[in-house]
Amino acid sequence: MSVVGLISVKEPPSLNELVPPSLYRIARRYSYFFNLGRKKSFATAFPFLKPGIFVTSARALEWVEVVDVRTYKNKMIPAQILGYDIPSGIGVIQAEVPGSVPLAASQLTPREADLSWAICFPVALAGGKVEYLPESFHRGRISAAGLEGTNLVAFESLLRTDHTLEDGCLGGALLDQYGAAAGMVLDDPDPGINYALPVADLKAMVEVLAEKKKPQRPFFGIGLVAPDDRRRAKFHLPADVAIPLVAYLIAGSPAEKAGVQAGDLLTSVAGEKVVSVAGAGAQLLKAKPEGGSVYLKVQRQGKEISIAVSPVLRPLRIMLSPSDEIQEALQANLVEVSTGATSQQGLRVTDLVRGGRGEKEGYHEGDLILSVSGKGVRKLETFDAIVRDSNSHIFVQKSAAADDKPRLSSYRMLLSIKKAEGGEKDDRSYQNFFPDVFTAPVY
């Protein structure tokens, strides 16, 4: 099979990237509290395209300094990182593994209930010790195709299978019933739920990364999603609306400057009608950076509007506005409350997705955010300004050409919350999920 285990040494960011400049001098005195040492991580890779080239998850290669591959005899072979691309989720390494043969790409169109196999090199982690387990074969079936909304990659049309995988299976091969590569394992968030990138999305990006080149993608700055109950409530959309929705815009982006607004429904790109996020995204990605205007048609309050947007080169790092980020991360809406008693003013948590990330983090419908970083907040615009000012070293605008290396994008804030149940106050720390943990669907 020639699938291999991936053992990497990750070098975490330095202390001055973890804290605002104003606190760096103080934090440096107590830096022994920070776990900044190197650490090992484990994933899987499989041969693809041509001999010596292995495909794995982009997240498995992020911040990596040294990488080796492990064969079925537990032989360690040094590897070289050729490149990785967080938006697509694809990473590429080179290693000389004797007998390695690239997997053939599946010619089948994945369908629900199709038989599939997940192949990977798992590890067992316990008490700080690592046990290398043998290559494992997991029989299962495809439970859905064309899925989006997982936040695993930016451009989503994913496969879902019913495999339950162990640690170390990230980046493993998903095979069809004939043993050809049907995709690459992206994540296994819950038992019996596994997401994979279809093989059709691998080839072009692997070719680019294998040449140590950077993808040259257009960037509009549009957060494009399929409407769900939360977004329909936020933008007052009818229950039957299903066409692509602009859920948010990236500050300073071409789309924002051109007049696209959050809540717009995208109906066509460059004259081509679109009915799904994947279809709209495919049309948007055909544009050339700095190649002139692309005409978008949107529905806004029942009217159709044509807007010319001139995409630029997609930057390496894309930061959502803090208020958009926290709503996407918690899977909830924030409603401004600026009238009535002062104690009842703030940002109210509404439309919390049942079983979603916010609920799991202990937030409840009706909770009221009173302040952020010790400053009262009643408007989303104020929330954004406070967080940006407190983390100016994070919210730095750089061109794609200048932003040529990964940088830490994590920031932490203290929220004062008035609980919906009981009315008592609760101070809690919040750290952003996007873009260091999740990848926003931004085109």
Structure notes:
By secondary structure, this protein is an alpha+beta fold. The strands form seven sheets. Strands 5-4-1-2-3-7-6 form a seven-stranded antiparallel beta sheet. A six-stranded antiparallel β-barrel has the order 8-11-12-15-14-13. About 2% of the residues have low confidence. The two termini are 36 Å apart. The relative contact order is 0.11. The chain is globular. The longest helix is centred in the C-terminal third of the chain and has 11 residues. It folds into four domains: 91 residues, Thrombin, subunit H (Beta Barrel), CATH 2.40.10.10; 95 residues, Thrombin, subunit H; 96 residues, PDZ domain (Pdz3 Domain, Roll); 110 residues, Pdz3 Domain (Roll), CATH 2.30.42. The chain has ten helices and 29 strands. The protein is 16% helix and 35% strand.
* Tally of distinct domains: 4
Helix content: 10-25%
Query: How much of the sequence is in beta strands?
Result: 35-45%
- What is the fourth-level CATH superfamily of the largest domain? PDZ domain
Write the layout of secondary structure elements.
Elements: E1 4-10, H1 15-18, H2 21-29, E2 39-47, E3 53-57, H3 58-61, E4 64-70, E5 76-78, E6 80-85, E7 90-94, E8 115-120, E9 123-126, E10 129-132, E11 136-147, E12 158-161, E13 173-175, E14 181-190, E15 193-198, H4 203-210, E16 218-219, E17 222-225, H5 229-235, E18 245-249, H6 254-258, E19 265-269, E20 272-273, H7 277-284, E21 294-300, E22 303-309, E23 312-313, H8 322-330, E24 333-337, E25 346-350, H9 357-360, E26 368-372, E27 375-376, H10 380-390, E28 412-418, E29 425-431
Antiparallel strand pairs: 1-2, 1-4, 2-3, 3-7, 4-5, 6-7, 8-11, 8-13, 9-10, 11-12, 12-15, 13-14, 14-15, 16-23, 17-18, 19-20, 19-21, 21-22, 24-25, 25-26, 26-27, 26-28, 28-29
